[in-house]
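Good morning,

Attaching, inline, the backbone tokens for the sequence recovery test we're adding to the shared suite. The designed sequence is right after.
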């Protein structure tokens, strides 16, 4: 499998690149700063910005799948942003042009239809209060991810959207919870478990085609 990873220098992107290489894949890591990606066998690093649509079709040529890890790191600056959805619009259109069939994209629990996940008290009381107070920074990030999901669902040939709670740098737990519909989501997922699941989704092993799902331990 020949896979391209966006946001490859990030907290999750780095682990995804390493896990793909361990799995025997050939990887193209896309980053705005190649010095932030550790060289390895079967790894090609391409410096490319999301706002450079001209560069994408060439970077994507010959790939079987894209793993989309671009995001606003940490808590962001609390302001509305379209950075991720704009990057996704460029990516999805270039994937169509280059004939890349599969997109695995990282989103957030609370984006898209997952706004309806969890018990009534969580959806109608706890979540709105948290998003207006302690987790205020998260609201613009989720809004941008909801736009990203809409774009993917409308235009990507095949996709798996993986919605994440807090991603933690701890040893793998290997007990995964996949939630859709109203089903509740755990509070966290280990980065190692996430990276393994992303690889499985990229290989089509999870059976999650044209699907958005929340993943937690
Ligand atoms: N970490 C978590 O707890 C968590 C929880 C829920 C969801 N997520 C989602 O998972 C994804 C990855 O998160 P992460 O923790 O790995 O974030 P991160 O460490 O900040 O990495 C995100 C990467 O996105 C790229 N990026 C950032 N702004 C960009 C822009 N304006 N244009 C193009 N590329 C840009 C950067 O890559 P380059 O500098 O290499 O270009 C950066 O390394 C994000 O979508 C995030 O929202 C993370």
């Amino acid at each position: 499998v020949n896979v391209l990873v966006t946001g490859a220098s990030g907290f999750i992107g780095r682990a995804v690149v390493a896990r793909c290489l361990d799995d025997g894949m050939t990887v193209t890591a896309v980053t705005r700063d190649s010095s932030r990606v550790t060289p390895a066998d079967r790894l090609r690093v391409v410096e490319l910005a999301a706002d450079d649509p001209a560069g994408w079709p060439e970077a994507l040529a010959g790939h079987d799948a894209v793993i989309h890890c671009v995001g606003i790191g940490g808590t962001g600056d609390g302001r509305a942003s379209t950075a991720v959805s704009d990057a996704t619009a460029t990516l999805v259109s270039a994937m169509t042009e280059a004939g890349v069939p599969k997109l695995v994209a990282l989103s957030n629990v609370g984006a898209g239809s997952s706004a309806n996940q969890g018990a009534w008290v969580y959806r109608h009381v706890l979540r709105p209060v948290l998003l207006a107070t302690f987790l205020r920074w998260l609201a613009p990030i989720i809004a941008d991810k909801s736009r990203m999901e809409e774009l993917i669902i409308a235009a990507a040939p095949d996709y798996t959207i993986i919605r994440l709670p807090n991603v933690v740098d701890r040893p793998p737990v290997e007990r995964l919870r996949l939630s859709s519909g109203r089903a509740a989501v755990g509070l966290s997922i280990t980065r190692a478990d996430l990276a393994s699941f992303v690889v499985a989704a990229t290989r089509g092993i999870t059976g999650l085609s044209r699907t958005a799902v929340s993943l937690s331990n």
